Amino acid sequence: MIYEREHDWVMIPQYHHSLLSGDISKNWGMDDLMEDNRWEDVTLAIAQHDCAWIDLDETPFWNDRAKSPYSFIDFPITLRMTFYTKGIDQLERQSPYAGLLCSMHFHSFFVESKELAAIEFVKQEKARQNRLMEQLNLFEACSKELLHLHFLLIQFCDNLSLYLCLQEPGTPKTEEFPWFKNGFPELFPFANGRKIMAEWLDLKRVSLQPFPLASPTVVSVRIKEVPKANIQQFGIAKAYKDTKWTERTFTLV
Questions:
Q1: Is 180 within 8 Å of 187 (Cβ atoms)?
Q2: When you count CB atoms within 10 A of the terminal residue's CB, does the N or C end of the chain come out lower?
């Protein structure tokens, strides 16, 4: 994932973003979810949902048409489907429940897509979900209700991590990445129908209201700030490889 500044591109591997999602989930404030016997599977799904991208993100690709590095948003859809499937397969082998959650997560991105690759992916993952729900005996109402809460959690942690990664720390509310200006779409029982709103208080702190975590939570993500001049001179692959890692740390309050 990327965003542009005047003299560089801020670039974050998708796997680093998913690890950040997992760190957010570890301090979740709903005890009834954390005490459930599937909680380890849930946090595994959240932290590892982008595990398939580890190798691919070692070398970023340049989008000639957009004159920018490819991001997870504009990466060719057929390749995206391939790597989403690979990641879900990998997680299912570790934990069928984690695989089910990640299947539901990625499936939700493409339900209304008219792209042939996306239509086939949706069909494939719906079949997987039905198979895993039968395997795990999840068709009872109480099991489906808990599964839905876990699904909301993976989506929320993913979105909050994107909020932290896709814009400059301290971005004013009016200038935020458009997906999150009006709050996160996931609605949890504790919030009484309200969306959780995020807002930068300064370069290090982000306010969440209503607050979903057990206590103020410190999280970090590794990034690269790749100079545009180096990309122009050496190409995207070498410029990215030669750029040193830096770490950003945030406190969620």
A1: no
A2: C
